[in-house]
Amino acid sequence: xxFPHLLTSLATTxxxxxxxxxxxxxxxxxxxxxxxxxxxxxxxxxYAPSSRTVSPKSVLSLATREVISSxxxxxxxxxxxxxxxxxxxxxxxxLVTVKYSTTGPGSLGLAFTEAKTYIGQWxxxxxxxxxxxxGALYSNFTSAGNYSYTMPDLSLRGGFRYLSLFLLTNGSTxxxxxDISLNIGFAPTWSNLxxxxxxxxxxxxxxxxxxxxxAYTLQTNAVPVGTGRHVPFLTTGWANNxxxxxxxxxxxxxxxxxxxxxxxxxxxxxxxxxxSVGDLDSVKNALQVMYNYQNSDGSFPxxxxxxxxxxxxxxxxxxxxxxxxxxxxxxxxxxxxxxxAKYLKAMNYIYGKVGTSGLLNVTGIRDWARWQQGFNNSExxxxxYHTLNTGADLxxxxxxxTNLSSTYIARATTLKTxxxxxxxxxxxxxxxxxxxxxxxxxxxxxxxxxxxxxxSANSTQAQSxxxxxxxxxxxxxxxxxxxxGNISPFISSFEIQGHLTIGxxxxxLELIRRSWGWYLTNPNGxxxxxxxxxxxxxxxxxRSSRGYxxxxxxxxxxxxxxxxxxxxxxxxxxxxxVTSPAGGTWKLAPQFGDLTSAExxxxxxxxxxxxxxxxxxxEYYTLNVQTPESTTGALVLPSWAGKVLKVDGKxxxxxxxxxxxxxxxxxxxxxxxNHTVVMG
Length: 680
Known about the structure:
The chain has four domains: 1-40, no CATH class; 53-184, Jelly Rolls (Sandwich); 200-572, Glycosyltransferase; 575-679, Maltose phosphorylase, domain 3 (Sandwich), CATH 2.60.420. The protein has 13 helices and 32 strands. The strands form eight sheets. Strands 3, 4, 5, 6, 7, 8, 9, 10, 11 and 12 form a ten-stranded antiparallel β-sheet that branches. A seven-stranded antiparallel β-sheet has the order 13-24-25-26-32-28-29, with helices on one face. Helix 5 (313-330) runs parallel beside helix 7 (378-397). The longest helix has 20 residues, at 378-397. The chain starts with 6 loop residues before the first helix and ends with a strand.
């Protein structure tokens, strides 16, 4: 029997229970799911609160930043400058209401921060790298009495964990805090923030928490479309009243900032969102805004409105790859058809930059934060290779009859040869940063070369690249050579998937634990979300080591581009993934590593997909998979010594697979439904 411990609860749970006639956030009507798709004990790892209205968990001393009581705790601010810090325990965001009483005139100040490092009477920086300080909000009162202050909508604070409340007065006024509440502003169409449509659980509790921290990050990055960062940036304070795009909800790059659509996130955030929270509406709206603001030459903006930053060839291509990811998970061919002419224009724009060498000549040099970009940059060329291959699939899915799919595949093949010819450094054993003479071997290009198939998974070249990537590792993550002194969980998200693509499971799991595990257990961080980036010395001043002059508190502690472990653990470790739109075809290709069990699942329009594997003794594994009967799947079974292999009770003989790692890897095609595999 498949998953016997869950069958009872699943029987009473609808596939997708949607709310009706209910307001979730301001004037936004609920349209998200109201029930979790896979109830179980793993729900204890969900960081999302059970209500859209929450209160702090504890009270901290400003001087020591240590907990002095649980909330409500101390409530009296008795002198000018007196302060209490209220800890919500996790990353939150929205509009705070404070009820209080006073004995005379003065002001109540409110300051916010994501990290404990920056607690104080000034908020951490959200307004802009080169703008003035965010400062604080103030509730002014002229006499003794009872007061209630709610932050104005434009002052919505997208991401914070700590709220500092402090008193300003010229006299003997004291202030008593009676109540603090927060109206959650993210995931605006969800009445039940815990109604996840995917789940993951394995024998390593650290990995479980990391998976759910990525999921929760993506929830905090789904925001109301009228709450983008104000542009132009303010000289003091902040305002989140910019229009971001169509619909009611849209996925942005960060909870606190930048609060804009940045397509570079699409390669990581979209797959992770699909396997966890299951929110594709926010993705669709984010992609649509890029098509709506496509430039006349076919290029996409680097960022959506109101910022509308331009000049990035890589982010242009990430919009195109994001389109592929969205259609793969949703089968929304209507969206694809409506934007197909613009997609073709975008492809013509970027492929028009391919020169006589066969390589892309990068002229839109803005990128994810790497220190250099331009000419025949290897990262950009590898992204183009992936764009062409995914474009070939999109052409098929949209019903193109002009042979575009074959054209794109042929172009990708030619490009791959050029990348290998001009960008691979055989003496070192990895791709260099450019076709020029350079000693830089970047993390981004080499990770993507493994993930996107520039090099064969079983080749000596692939293993050399994987080994050379280890040279960048520090005790708290992988330093990126193209941004020295910095650790980028965004680029490391590609690295872990690159190692997994070529079967280096232990390396991927070690990097996840080393980098994401370090941040999640860092008492100065959010302890619930994934960070934009940090320095190799363990401080949060991402990019400050490379000459950027700005407040280091500007770094986002809830950034969806860093959520790679969430999809990697589902797609590679559990091994469950969809291979055609909405999961019409799927794959189960587990990687065991040092784990003894893993299970998980997700939902598409065709139904529920879930899998489980358990290790028995030293050598034996039992795998279960359950998918809609209308689908077709591939069981890609790991290298085994050939002692036992049974599928649904029937023995599979040796010699049907290929030799991999001293054993035999077997691929079997099965119809959807329930299947059990015993191997060892």
